[in-house]
Known about the structure:
Layout: E1 3-11, H1 14-43, H2 51-62, H3 75-93, E2 110-114, E3 118-120, E4 123-126, E5 130-134, E6 145-151, E7 154-162, E8 172-179, E9 183-187, E10 192-194, H4 198-201, H5 203-215, H6 221-255, E11 256-261, H7 266-269, H8 276-282, H9 284-297, E12 301-304, E13 330-332, E14 339-341, H10 342-351, H11 373-378
Parallel strand pairs: 8-11, 11-12
Antiparallel strand pairs: 1-5, 1-7, 2-6, 3-4, 4-5, 6-7, 8-9, 9-10, 13-14
Amino acid sequence: MPLVSFKTELKPNNKQKILFAKHAGVARHAYNWGLATCFQALEKGEKLLTAIDLHKRLVAEVKSKYEWYYEVSKCSPQQALRNLSTAFKNWWVHKYTKKPRFKKKGHHDSFYLDGSIKISGNRFRLPRIGWVNVHENLPCVTPKNVTISRHADRWFISFKYELDKQNTPKIRERIGVDIGINSLATCSDGTVVKNRKAYRKHKRKLARLQRNLARKQKGSKNRKKAKLKLARQHKKVVQIRKDTIHKLTSWLAKNHREIVIENLNVSGMLKNHRLASAIANCGFYEFRRQLEYKTEWYGSKLIIAHRFYPSSQLCSNCQNRQKISLSKRVYECENCSLKIDRDLNASINLELYPTTDSLSGSKACGESDQLNSKSVKDSVKQEVNIHPMKSGNLTN
């Protein structure tokens, strides 16, 4: 059974908020202390300390000095040191990431808890904290551990549990989805999902809040208030974007047996600095990531077309291939005189995408191993400024 991550907002009282802040503070202190200890060991040429060795030294050298360590659960500093050990291995041993940095108060505050955790209706029972309410009904499971994090002035809890697969009834066997900027998704059945453009709509307000923050004196209470307002606005933008993508991906996975999407080179598209902001605001990576796990939940299949499949250059009626500039939003076929919206034509071609090895070794969910370099260069797809169409109705 697949593991599902569940995250929801907590509704703590003032006493619980103080306990949350203490747990996050202890986790941050333990992490920074362990990071400084590891740097000293590397400077001396000593062996890199493990999470167990760091915790033993923490109990012997640090915990006895600071009484507030005993006011929180022992799981919080333990997990912080485990995270530090993983970060050091990724940097020093495996060379995966950059050098670990010291954590700052109020920036990505979070902590970990395990032990006697219970769920009852719409509340959690957490060790050393007690019963905490949430804003929605919770799944009837018993999580082994939870992670509590803060975004702006709100606290969230997340955990994992096993989910039984739900084979929902399908209304369509196959659908092609062409994603873009103005229209987030154009489907081969004619459904068009508008892009809400959360960042663009709130950009002026974000700039104003940022200027207000820059004018405040550092260390003052007014600066803290201005910083909180800015964080709330950023959180609002993120939630709008996630809400749109979640509704779209849930509708696709629940109601369609096979979903065909493009394998866009998003990192390459972001190099276009004129469109980088608009492309990043769409959440293309998140769209594909959510489809990958939701198709497993609801008994559907995700097919990823080859990155250089010319869906915008092929005629959906006669399969004639012709080049078309990005400024032209209507596809006019020179062979059969078909006139159709560019994005709808691309989505229909994606629905007709073959799942066999008929396209030079292309695979249903993977990359092609053999491609002619000239055809690759000619058929690179960089969809921008998508023409808006009449939006269809979606059901979550």
